[in-house]
Amino acid sequence: MHPPLGTDVEYRPLPSSANGAYSSSHYNSGRLESPWMRKLSRRQWIAVLAASLILFALASHTVLPTRTSHVKEFEQVPFEDSRDPLDLPDTPRPVDDTPVVHVNPGSSKYYEAVLNGPPTAKFRGNPHNLRNDTRYLTSWINAGFTNDVLNIGNIVYLARMTDRIPVLPPLDSYIGHWSTPRPLSSVFDLARLSEALGFPVLEWSQVKDPESTEIDVLGCWNIWQVANLDAIAPREARNPRELYLDMSYTTAPANVKLIPGYVHDSHSSFWSLAPLAFHDMRAKALAQPEVQTSPAPQTGVSVPPDEQMLCYDYLFYTCVDEPFEYDNDVYPTWDVVLKHLHWTKEVERIGNEFLRKLLGVPDYEDTPPHITIHARHGDFQNWCPDADRQGCFTSMEAYSTRIAEIQQELMERKGINVTRVIMTSDEQDESWWDRVREMGWLRIDHEKENTIIEYGEWYPVLIDAYIQSASLGFIGTDRSTFSIVAKRRVKDWHDGAVRMVKWGTPDADNH
Ligand SMILES: *[C@@H]1O[C@H](CO)[C@@H](O)[C@H](O)[C@H]1NC(C)=O
Ligand SMILES: *[C@@H]1O[C@H](CO)[C@@H](O)[C@H](O)[C@H]1NC(C)=O
Q: Which ligand 2 atom is the nearest neighbour of the CA of 407?
């Protein structure tokens, strides 16, 4: 048995001394300046979009139902927080002493072109920070770290498609006990992403003052309830509450559901969501009988979906072609956006320090190349028959075979003999780690290194992800999104050698 794709919402590296932190069950109009878009006028662009839509509609009727029939929706862990949407927690939060970067340093000029100035108490009002000649797009995140990053990629990709400036929410998944909002720019280099894309990528903290408690009402499309037949409300998210936004949701037209009537999938295609960004097609959508606007809970105000700050409740389940396409060869969100989403200098510095210490490199030497394995266990064992973990998960022998393949490929392709192997895993069984040690592979021990105390709750995950991404060879676990993202980084950033291991039965990875 295989788990459905997208199950890797809760990857955490091996627990450290703050064990409890890991054992909890918490789930958890713009201008585009890229050359190919500059060539198209808005009218031409809409024509292209409309043509794609028709083509897509034709294609989806003939191909999709059979191709996707095996796809099973991954289990939604319910959002546990039943507080009033705008009632922020009053229990004190732990102090996160990592530096908080609100604005991308060194490129303020870039952002001035799409904002009036510094963030204001309300994003709309007087003064306000949105420019009257610029259109924006926003959406919320609500999963684990990796899936939130995949979601961010979709938000930016849809902004590019619709000629809008993306305004991204802070990261806020439960890494430890708390969902502490953390600026995306404290983990990823958004200035570099903006440069690569050719248009600015904004954060909400640049638009609305993060300290402000003044409420804005925002009209937003409710996609979730249309695409997910079991949903009875828009996708719940903490972001609007953190941003003091009172959301008035409008159900999207029925055609945003990719596979009509199919209960086991929640995807929409980019091509069905993009038209809502344009005045005439938005008006057409609003005229559909099933499209209804609900009042914002705090203020009781009903507003239609905002035309300037276009908003969709949740874009994780958005695809170009078919559900869960992030492991396909064709995955435009990766190639256009996420490939360019690199770590901040700070994450790189801490990750590299950690890596050099692990490899025992003296100060005067360069960091040697390494191979990283990501063995995703954790709740993947729920798919193991009879809880036979030994037979279900990849054996040390199978990993050895893969390591040898990677070493051979790197020797042939690059003439580099890579001998150092690092294991990353959320496995808690020490006897398994003993076998890792017997194989001669290195272990990242966040407990021993006091990672949480030194750097904060996010860093066990960030250091593992950094070390994976900095490898010349990578071996991941089939169906883990954490592995899939690491695999793509190693391939695209270093032209590295990558393999994914199959699992589920003792001979699953035989090949
Ligand atoms: C747009 O904003 C500029 C600068 O604030 C202002 O001068 C102009 O009058 C505004 N235009 C409209 C149509 O509101
Ligand atoms: C790679 O290096 C190891 C350790 O130094 C050595 O034992 C091995 O023979 C080398 N392999 C190749 C193909 O050069």
A: 13
